[in-house]
Structure formats: structure tokens, C-alpha cells
Write a structure and sequence with these properties.
By secondary structure, this protein is of the alpha/beta class. It has two domains: 230 residues, Aldehyde Dehydrogenase, Chain A, domain 1 (3-Layer(aba) Sandwich), CATH 3.40.605.10; 188 residues, Aldehyde Dehydrogenase, Chain A, domain 2, CATH 3.40.309.10. The protein has 15 helices and 18 strands. The strands form four sheets. Strands 10-13-14-9-8-15-16 form a seven-stranded mixed sheet, with helices on both faces. Strands 5-4-3-6-7-17 form a six-stranded mixed sheet, sandwiched between helices. Strands 1-2-18 form a three-stranded antiparallel sheet. Helix 8 links the parallel strand 6 and strand 7. It binds nicotinamide-adenine-dinucleotide. The site of nicotinamide-adenine-dinucleotide has 28 residues, from helix 7 and helix 8.
């Protein structure tokens, strides 16, 4: 790890990554790499997570291609130095911002979208002129292996390298003099990563998780809300950082909403989802046991069956749970959806507001004042009104958490900003000098008071 970081840092210092042409060429190579390795990627995702071709292509490969396309389209203008205003005190000078890459970036990835979450930050990091070391998740080893092979085929290790392995690899990398750390994963590990990076004052982005609510008010379009909630919750068997974690529904429409949710679960996955060839499995036994233990709480409204050999859990709705139950005290990260009810929207705002800030929040309801009230009075990473997950698919929206759900954001222009240091420059004139700033200047204090206040 030590020699790899040194190799990248030395090469970076030689200035190869500075030009627009170089960066553009790398983005094109990344796209080509995805095309060439499409089949191995899809096979690896099927093997490690039982992802169907549809889910794997749309949520991983297509997403990355969309990001590359957006970067290619805008990179030149994002890279350009930006002039800023010149205040009176600076008369005669030119003031501008230079966009500077950090250097060597470490990208630490989780297992749930193991291709997308390993490579989406790489697109931003490379476009911004950095070199990158990717640490894929060891819990999806086939995908990790494919990522290593394809990166090695397309890129020299002084530009992009893959360090496979478990937490010991990450820990060793974090000992090195990296220039930026981009971490996606759980809150406890994020805390450790930030602590370690803090020892060397390495800047970090933390893309974490948490409990993201889906609030369904009484004026919501019930059928559409159910359809979009089922899609967002059970995609990847609930193993999505921004999946609705729990449902908060107005008591008057609960019965109708649950009925509609059942209809869409059957429509999307069949009445026996455990037999559905395309239904995603839980990543490993530890997570399977953890999620299955939630089924002992409350009362099961829909689903509840498991296949412990194939590590599958049916799309499940649980009723009669309280905030003190285990299912409500940790991120579920699986296909289990607890249902809570409320009477007044203010109760919801009070309750959700007293929890750690979620990564996402979804509000379903037609009244615009209520939409505004919920989205403005609660703090959360990002979200949707009358939909789930869709905000992540717009490259013009920054994606990230707030508070315990994360620090910083990325996607599209936000990625470029994340991996770029903005260096402010004053280019002073030598044609004349303004004496008011120098000690002993007669008019100095008067001028400063007048101009600066
Ligand atoms: P994780 O935190 O267990 O692991 C993430 C990465 O950190 C892996 O590469 C792992 O090898 C490494 N790691 C694990 N323990 C470590 C340690 N002690 N020191 C250093 N590195 C360590 O997370 P996970 O289980 O892979 O992913 C699930 C979590 O990630 C969920 O909480 C989910 O919400 C979150 N997540 C967030 C986003 C987002 O974009 N905000 C996306 C996907 C997942």
C-alpha cells in the first residue's frame, strides 16, 4: 500500500493529469471498459447478489454511463478558471479561482451496488485530475475481482489501482499520506475512517446510511404512492442506502395503502417471491440473520417467509411496531418495511426531527403547503415528493447525507466540486500601488473604515 500510494503521488506530481484532453481520454476509456466488461459485470452481480440483468444494468452500468456522459459534456466548463469580482480595495488586480485536483484519492466502496458505488466516485475523481485507489467491498468478492481485472486492463496503476481485501487493507491505506478519502458505507465504519483520516488532516467525503422515512399523507394518490414505495423499497431486496426504511402513514388511509402495496408486491415479484429467479438475495448469512430477527417483532401484514438456504427474505410489511423495537432502532437495509401511523403531520415532523438526520426522506401528498412544510422543517440528505429514489438519478442534483447520514456530496457537477480544490488567486498590478494598507499611511485608516466599514 505504501509503495502504491507513493507511485501514484510521484506520478501525479509530474503533472500528467492536468489537461482537459487527458481527463477526457480517461473518461472515454472508462466508458469503453464498461462496454467491454458488461457481461462479466452482470455475471458477477448475479453470482454475488442474484441481481437480475435488468436491475444490474439499470442501477449499476447505466447509472455510470449517465455520469460519464454528463462529465464529458460539461468537463471543459467545470475546469475553466472562474473570474470573481474585484472589490475597491483590490483595484487594478484580477481575481480568479483555479481548479486544482487534490492528488491521490482513496475510494472505499460497500457491497450493495458494488460496481456503481466503486466507480461513480472514480468518474468524478479522474475528471477532476486525481489519481485513484479503489478499495471494493470484500463481501462481493466476484465483483471485486472483476473490478480489479477490468481496471488493470484499461488503466496503469499509477493512475487507477484496485486494492482488494477487507478492513485491514483500508486501515493500511489510511496510514498513507493520501490527499482525499471518499468513503461509502455504514455510520460506525465512517466514524472510524474519519477519525483515522483526521490524524493526517486528510479531507473526507462520507456517504453513509440511516433510517429514511416514507411519509404518506391522507391526500396522497394512494395507488401511485404504493407502486413507487414498493419499487424503491424492494429494489435490490431493500439493500439500498436510500430505500424507504419505514412507512409513516396517516391512519385514515393505512388499510388502503397496505392493500395497494400488496398488489404491487405481487405484480412486481409474484405471490411467491422466494421462488422468483430474479429476486435479489441478502448478501451474507450475518445480514440474513440480522434482518430475519426483525420478523419476530410486531405483526406481519404481508410476506414474512424466508429461505435460509438461498438467503432470501420476502418483501415484508410489519405492523404494530414502536420506536423502541429493534427494527426501529437501526437501519434495516433489507426487504422489511415497518408501518407506523399518525394523526397529525406535526407529530411526524416532531418524531422524525428527533431522530438522527436521515439520508433520504419521501413525502407523498398533494397539498403544496404540506409538501413545503415537511421538506423545509426537517433536515435530511435529499429526497422526493411523491416518489422514492428518483432524486439520485438526476445528475444535476447533488447526492449526499447530512449529520450522521454523511458529509459532502457528489454526482455530476457536485462530484467535480468534491474532488477539486478551489484555489483563490489575486493577480496584483505592478503599474501602481495603493498605499493605504501600509503602516504609517496618512489616509490608511480613513480609507479602510470607508471601504470596509
Ligand atoms: P461497511 O461500512 O461495513 O463497509 C464499507 C467499506 O468499508 C468496505 O469496503 C469495508 O471493507 C470497509 N471497512 C469495513 N470495516 C472497516 C473498518 N473497521 N475500517 C476500515 N474499513 C472498513 O458498509 P457495507 O456493509 O459495505 O454497506 C452498507 C452500509 O453502507 C449501509 O449503512 C448503507 O446505508 C451504506 N451505504 C451508503 C450509501 C450512500 O451513498 N450514502 C450507499 C450504499 C451504502
Amino acid at each position: 500500500m505504501k509503495s502504491l500510494v507513493k507511485l501514484q503521488k510521484d506520478w501525479f506530481k509530474e503533472g500528467h493529469t492536468k489537461s482537459y484532453e487527458f481527463r477526457k481520454e480517461q473518461l472515454i476509456k472508462l466508458r469503453k471498459m464498461l462496454d467491454t466488461f458488461e457481461e462479466p459485470i452482470l455475471k458477477a452481480l448475479k453470482f454475488d447478489l442474484n441481481k437480475s440483468e435488468y436491475e444490474a444494468y439499470t442501477a449499476e452500468i447505466a447509472f455510470l454511463k449517465m455520469e460519464i456522459k454528463d462529465h464529458l459534456k460539461n468537463l471543459k466548463s467545470w475546469m475553466a478558471p472562474r473570474d470573481v469580482k474585484t472589490p475597491l480595495t483590490h483595484t487594478g488586480s484580477k481575481n480568479y479561482i483555479v481548479k486544482e485536483p487534490y492528488g491521490t484519492v482513496l475510494v472505499i466502496a460497500p457491497w450493495n451496488y458494488p460496481v456503481q458505488l466503486a466507480l461513480a466516485p472514480v468518474i468524478g475523481a479522474i475528471a477532476s485530475g486525481n489519481t485513484v485507489i479503489i478499495k471494493p467491498s470484500e463481501l462481493t468478492p466476484t465483483v471485486s475481482w472483476v473490478i480489479k481485472r477490468m481496471v488493470e486492463q484499461y488503466f496503469p496503476s499509477h493512475l487507477i489501482a484496485v486494492a482488494e481485501g477487507g478492513k485491514e487493507v483500508t486501515q493500511e491505506l489510511l496510514e498513507q499520506p493520501l490527499d482525499y478519502v471518499f468513503f461509502t458505507g455504514s455510520v460506525p465504519v465512517g466514524r472510524e475512517v474519519m477519525k483515522k483520516a483526521g490524524e493526517q488532516l486528510i479531507p473526507v467525503t462520507l456517504e453513509l446510511g440511516g433510517k429514511s422515512p416514507a411519509i404518506v399523507h391522507k391526500d396522497a394518490s394512494i395507488d401511485l404512492a404504493a407502486k413507487r414505495i414498493v419499487w424503491g423499497k424492494f429494489l435490490n431486496a431493500g439493500q439500498t442506502c436510500i430505500a424507504p426504511d419505514y412507512l409513516y402513514v396517516h391512519h385514515e388511509i393505512k388499510a388502503d395503502l397496505v392493500k395497494a402495496i400488496q398488489k404491487y408486491i405481487y405484480e412486481f415479484y409474484g405471490e411467491h417471491s422466494l421462488l422468483n429467479e430474479d429476486y435479489v438475495k441478502i448478501v451474507n448469512r450475518k445480514h440474513f440473520d440480522r434482518i430475519s430477527s426483525f420478523l419476530d417483532e410486531g405483526q406481519i401484514l404481508i410476506g414474512g417467509r424466508v429461505d435460509s438456504k438461498k438467503l432470501r427474505i420476502e418483501p415484508t410489511l410489519i405492523d404494530q411496531v414502536t420506536w423502541t423495537d429493534k427494527v426501529m432502532s437501526e437501519e434495516i437495509f433489507g426487504p422489511v418495511l415497518p408501518v407506523l401511523t399518525y394523526d397529525q403531520l406535526d407529530e411526524v415532523i416532531e418524531q422524525v426531527g428527533s431522530q438522527p438526520k436521515p439520508l433520504a426522506l419521501y413525502y407523498f401528498g398533494e397539498n403544496e403547503e404540506d409538501q413545503q412544510k415537511v421538506t423545509e422543517s426537517l433536515s435530511f440528505g435529499g429526497g422526493c415528493i411523491n416518489d422514492t429514489l428518483y432524486h439520485i438519478l438526476n445528475p444535476h442534483l447533488p447526492f449526499g447525507g447530512v449529520g450522521s447520514s454523511g458529509i459532502g456530496s457528489y454526482h455530476g457537477k457536485a462530484s467535480f466540486a468534491t474532488f477539486t480544490h478551489e484555489k483563490g488567486i489575486t493577480k496584483q498590478t505592478t503599474k501602481f500601488d495603493q498605499n493605504f494598507r501600509y503602516p504609517g499611511s496618512q489616509l490608511g485608516l480613513k480609507v479602510i473604515k470607508k471601504v470596509l466599514g
